[in-house]
Queue: 3 jobs
Job 1
Amino acid sequence: MSSQSRSGKRAAPRGRRDDFSALRDGEVAVALPDHSDAALYFIGRIRTPWQRREQCPKNARESDAVCAVELDPHWIEGLKGLETATHVLLFYWMDRSRRDLVLQVPRHYGEQRGTFALRSPARPNPIAVSVARLVRIDGNVLHVSGVDCLDNTPLLDIKPYFASTDSVPDAVVGWHARRRGRLDKTRSSR
Amino acid sequence: MSSQSRSGKRAAPRGRRDDFSALRDGEVAVALPDHSDAALYFIGRIRTPWQRREQCPKNARESDAVCAVELDPHWIEGLKGLETATHVLLFYWMDRSRRDLVLQVPRHYGEQRGTFALRSPARPNPIAVSVARLVRIDGNVLHVSGVDCLDNTPLLDIKPYFASTDSVPDAVVGWHARRRGRLDKTRSSR
């Protein structure tokens, strides 16, 4: 099954354009594999106030909007015991992203970096993960804060967040820290 | 494409058994959807010292073994800039797990809980995420510590770990904390 078979499109042999965005200067695409290796089920939808990408918060902690994770009732028994967790990992599918970029130039950074050094939705497998605060569970609906995705985003998984294995407070992403350092300097020299 | 089409098996309408494990008392399976919604590419393999599940560390921080994440060279440009990160999120596919369980009784806990309240590999979309310490990158190979998966596990994605959005040191999973509390009490009363 081609990744684009649902929309009726075929992947071009190289540098496929998709329905979302063209390449920017400095961006590089590679051919997508000619077959896929595994298949996903969408198990629900995430409802947020954001209908267009430019409305979304830049990162999930910028907003304290409470959003609704609507689990398909088929899977509802899977929630048993989750109400005791303060935070969850939400996995979702960024279905409007191109999958063939290896080098990207994000608009707000303006520098070329590898896809795996970025959290951009454009990646071979556009799976996002967000740490969300679990406010409450009503039946098949989780009310959470700390998500930044578009309304109606397909849900792939929910897991409890364990501080013991998931939290690394002193982790650093060097390119980002240096960039922030420069920004802070710019601000303080104003 | 059925999730099982590569092995030539068909999902039974209810409570499909897979090649890995039968149901334990208290476990509940539901029918899998009759179609999948999206497709994944395996982009590499994770090489670890563990060939069988019972050899794997119980959680990723139990072991400081340095493991090799072998990215398919096709995607190598995507690593540019990642060497500046101290930690990465590794996404991988637990391809030997059944996908239809909603209630599970993990052997080491002995209590029935929902799939989404557990980190068990058995889930509708068996995507795992591990926070790994990035030791170094040699070409297309990442040397990391902090993974607990079987040797040759298919790789889905690599992302930089941002403490600002990914780290929640005070998160609590109530059922697990209570269980630890009981264990600590048992130990101290010996």
Job 2
Amino acid sequence: ENTFEIAVIGGDGIGPEVVAEARKVLDAALAPESAEFTYIEYSLGAEHWLTTGETLTEETLQALRGHDAILFGAVGADPLDTRVPSGIIERELLLGLRFNLDHCVNLRPTRSYPGVVSPLRGVDEEHPIDFVVVREGTEGPYAGNGGLLRRGTDAEIATEVSVNTAYGVRRVVEDAFTRAQARDKHLTLVHKNNVLTYSGDLWTRTTTAVAKSFPDVRWDYMHVDAATIHMVNNPQRFDVIVTDNLFGDILTDLAPAISGGIGLAASASINTAGTAPSMFEPVHGSAPDIAGKAIADPTAAVLSAALMLDHLGLGEAAARVEAAVLAQLSQWAQDGTSGLSTSQRGDAFVARLSS
Amino acid sequence: ENTFEIAVIGGDGIGPEVVAEARKVLDAALAPESAEFTYIEYSLGAEHWLTTGETLTEETLQALRGHDAILFGAVGADPLDTRVPSGIIERELLLGLRFNLDHCVNLRPTRSYPGVVSPLRGVDEEHPIDFVVVREGTEGPYAGNGGLLRRGTDAEIATEVSVNTAYGVRRVVEDAFTRAQARDKHLTLVHKNNVLTYSGDLWTRTTTAVAKSFPDVRWDYMHVDAATIHMVNNPQRFDVIVTDNLFGDILTDLAPAISGGIGLAASASINTAGTAPSMFEPVHGSAPDIAGKAIADPTAAVLSAALMLDHLGLGEAAARVEAAVLAQLSQWAQDGTSGLSTSQRGDAFVARLSS
Ligand SMILES: CC(C)[C@H](C(=O)O)[C@@H](O)C(=O)O
Ligand SMILES: CC(C)[C@H](C(=O)O)[C@@H](O)C(=O)O
């Protein structure tokens, strides 16, 4: 029997609540498989920082490295809580994990869900959205390079250096082509290569070169500004988008917004070489305003768990979870979800998996 | 009598066609004023490059500097025309003008227009959009700083340096606050200061400082990724957005997309110190596919001309043009525009101004 050791980082606010449901669903999905999950909980996030003053220690990182995957909830303090310095949890913990565990592929699928109305008139059940963004996760403008000179004076200069390497771009583009090949065989490179000519040259040249190994995948290029127009006017045209860290950040907020499913968006931060565990997390935040009320929607965490199953080679279990979620969302689209608690929602997915 | 010398750069494709209508409308709008425009045409763009090999010479720049304003059409070759190196006209001519003429404020208003259906379900005549983006135009990631090391090898590195100065940020933020004060007194700073900490610090600090001189303007901060969500879910919340060159580029394609009016979007590239002429251009491109057919819509060029009137201190004439456009668009929303030529549309605006 296959045993996977999963690190669980519930985090802050609704994070632990939705992750608990994801675990229930994982266990139900695994029942028919000869595989088993063991879970170890890690206390990390804003609350943890408030009590310990630590965001992510070397010891914790070391311990996390021993796991097969990380199931993540959400982190972040109440924005009104001025004790937590702005951005520190995001940078030191979230980005700390991505960079230290070499999560080069930040995978963010976007699709239409039953009962979820898109804010776009052109998106409906007959014209659904279904694409994935493969966002680079370990370099680009996120590298943290840059500086401030003469801070606070009239002569102040601030720089930010986007760092892009052939090594870093190629592995992400290869991953994106591989995913496109398994989907609708259409890849779109998004960049701004008419202005950012150095990095744009590297991205465009790399994509052109990698494309040769994927002759059955057609690919096109789109400027990031134009990509936002297409997302609004014809999001159905996208299958797989590959892009850099910052453009990917922007497009993967726009993408779930146009599907109407920001609350449902799942993501995976993948170490493609398998040298460290990959991480699976809902895109939504810790939502301190509804924390502790048992009303958070665990669907995004459950869908993130499905991405984890898929990543661990348990594709059939992943497919079962996705099917259960789709079926249950359809049901709820008819019945409504008013009054349903977080765990009742999780139980409903479990019931579908067990039936 | 006040005479303004206007440089006219029609450019490529439909550019000269729509600019011709803008001129007609300008002259009609000026009739009641003690002001007059003289026009000098400059041949610039992809066609010009093909015949001369020049994008923007020092002589042309010098001549342009002598004008009170520049009325611009559109530039760019047919994308299928492989004779024109990709990006050269955009960089050397468009960005060349912005940087050389110190167009620090790139102003892009977005609003709902009668008869123009937004792709968003939440935007309609009862819930219209009306905001402006003040995009920085002369620094940031557009500075052209960066480089490629070991090009074409596995060890290649490409960098892009975003350059931000107190000088450059402050003048744009001041301009944005001034505009907010004259509108709904609400300014939103858009950045990504949790990740781009150096430039984010400069932008946030500058905005906080400038805000003190505008106590009647309330302001808030939004990450660029979150801004895309708000644009889709609640664009009515925005009044004035101030942001950097690259974020502004992205948001000002998204903005007209959500209003439904990409074809109607106007823009101004403003030298706030008055040391060189400002430039007024429609956001749409040269549309080579419909060039020469006399079917291009001149509305965006006409609205850009209205921005020029306003900039030149001819606010009443500007208001008349805007009112004429709105009235005529309402009319067309009922009658339809099928079969109307470019000049018939221009004539309709002129008729409204003259009646
Ligand atoms: C919280 C922030 C650092 C993060 C990012 O910018 O990557 C978030 O926006 C995301 O997309 O995961
Ligand atoms: C053509 C290009 C260089 C330009 C820009 O990126 O600024 C365009 O997208 C714009 O927004 O005016």
Job 3
Amino acid sequence: MHHASEILLTLFLVFVAAQVGAEIAQRLKLPGVVGEIAAGCVIGPSLLGWISPDQTLPGTPLDVLAEIGVVLLLFSVGLETRLEDLKKVGKVAFLVGVLGVLIPFAMGGAWAHGSGFAWSNALFIAAAFVATSAGITARVLQELGALQRVESKVILGAAVIDDILAMLLLGVVVSLQEGQGFEPFKLLAVLGSAIGFIVLVGLGGARVMRWNSGWLEKPHSAHSPLAIVLAICLGLAWLSTLLGLAAIIGAFLAGMIASETRQQHTLETQTQPLLALLTPFFFVITGSKIDLAQLASPEAAWTLAIVTVIAIVSKFAGGWLGSLALGRNAAAIVGFGMVPRGEVGVVVASLGLAAGVFSDRIYAIIVAMSLLTAMVTPPVLAWMLKRYPAGGTVNPPAGG
Amino acid sequence: MHHASEILLTLFLVFVAAQVGAEIAQRLKLPGVVGEIAAGCVIGPSLLGWISPDQTLPGTPLDVLAEIGVVLLLFSVGLETRLEDLKKVGKVAFLVGVLGVLIPFAMGGAWAHGSGFAWSNALFIAAAFVATSAGITARVLQELGALQRVESKVILGAAVIDDILAMLLLGVVVSLQEGQGFEPFKLLAVLGSAIGFIVLVGLGGARVMRWNSGWLEKPHSAHSPLAIVLAICLGLAWLSTLLGLAAIIGAFLAGMIASETRQQHTLETQTQPLLALLTPFFFVITGSKIDLAQLASPEAAWTLAIVTVIAIVSKFAGGWLGSLALGRNAAAIVGFGMVPRGEVGVVVASLGLAAGVFSDRIYAIIVAMSLLTAMVTPPVLAWMLKRYPAGGTVNPPAGG
């Protein structure tokens, strides 16, 4: 009984902190997600200590709830995304994805090498500059009702490309470490299977659902279409991780497939309570990982500032250059939408720490950078989206 | 990444197994919950081994998801329960609760002592015969749309009384073990605080909500009334465990309070997707704990059969005698509705094992008994509810 008591208290505290944080943020005209991340920082080990670092390690209940939360979030974003719309922005999204990986990788590597790291280690650090965390941007776009804007489609499409490339880069830099063999054919196989998975599931699944979704209502269960679609979501999230992609890619694909069904509207309504319960865990736990003590020394704070600026500028540059065809304003939104690293940067940093490539200090700085980019993005993006109204339809170029 | 992959696969397997099990059960005209428990038994360690026993220990992600699932289930049952209705059946429910604890305790103790256990140990074993698990019955009543029947109100009211008494009895039997002092004043304090909590929260909360629930809509959040009510649910579930009660008592109270708000109908609709996602974890994991290997020897099977029959007959007798005022048919439904021990019996057995009172064999038998009663109840209860139509309103006596 005692154990149940402890975990229920933690769930209660995390959930209430998220609500309070979101409420304060919204009263300050900021996106709610900023408040949820800040609430996590406040109740986390850095300040109040209501959540300990042990409680959010991979595989703990809070970590799993957070994972389910972000999986459901990207599922719901997928539900609002039509394959047709993504296809229309395909070329721009591809360019954004590629440039948004190459520029941060180059700038991050240059900085790390310039700071005294050997090239093999510098490239590992550079890999932590690369991967965009779509969750944070997606939540802001959803909160502001902007998911139908052309910039949103580009960002979501680019996030998929970004994730594939980031996974490949990580494979390369890991193999460049001592004791690891560089296996180009293996990497090509990984690339092929990831692309094959996305194309097959995305195109094939969407076609099946568009053709006939009556079978979703065949089962006797009262929750029938929702339960089947959630099962598909969990299954594709798992398959994604199996292929080395982020779980949220599979969840997004599942949502996109489900958006082709005629039950799409009901599913969207039914997904909302799931988001209300579970996504707060993701954002609060993300925030709880910000280690404020690392900012205490002026030197560390200075390094963090430089790293964060490089991370923001390089990603923005990639997204902006890639989407200039949409006009400058839209390109700025796309560029900033790609900025947050969130939990993906944290994962790469953890791998680097485990591999002995990162010192504790550089680890803490990379984690703080990942989360700072996540904190900075929502208010800036919200401001941009209001300042530059939608250019109309999802047909690029939308003018500038 | 690898860890995330593993847990996502488990979530996927558990969720799909629940859907398949429920579907098969419903096609066989059985309640879906039977199929979910059976699915857990099939994918659990006894048969397929897709879930290992380690994965469902207290505090693991699956255990926490199961706990959240059953908390939400009782919350949703509370949402369909008016305090006024419970008050009307108060006396009958009290009698059912008291007799439903005393008779199983006496019969269980007599059997254990007769089987050669010293009285102090026999009474501990007897305590495992006592506590009803409201989750399973509640789910059957909900599935069959029978929550508004007078028998359902009696069962739910009695389950609250039952839980208080079971907690006290457990306190007594633990204190009777060697090395523990028997402290009647401490037990009285425990009893007082549990009753005080329930009365204060139930009556006070319902009054506040009936008086004004407009404040639930004050926050800016899109999920506002639901999120606040879920926070209350988690908070009361935690407080319950703090006072030694089951978490589901607090969740039920939270639902009952929320049923007094004018947003009750919306909340009910919004809770459904949460149940669809999370309750399967509770039932599948309950089922996965059935250790079929223990039934392999004829002797163990025979003991299990006797224990299970005693457990069913004694609980049925208590419920039946207590609610005879409602008529024989209604009393039969109430009696059988109180039969499932489910996870509560498992918890008592685990305590007994940890305290060195239970051998591995008696532990396995008590666990199997708890789960067998959980398996047997749904089909019998469903059959009874169909055979004996509702006696009309919630006003007892409803005739017979």
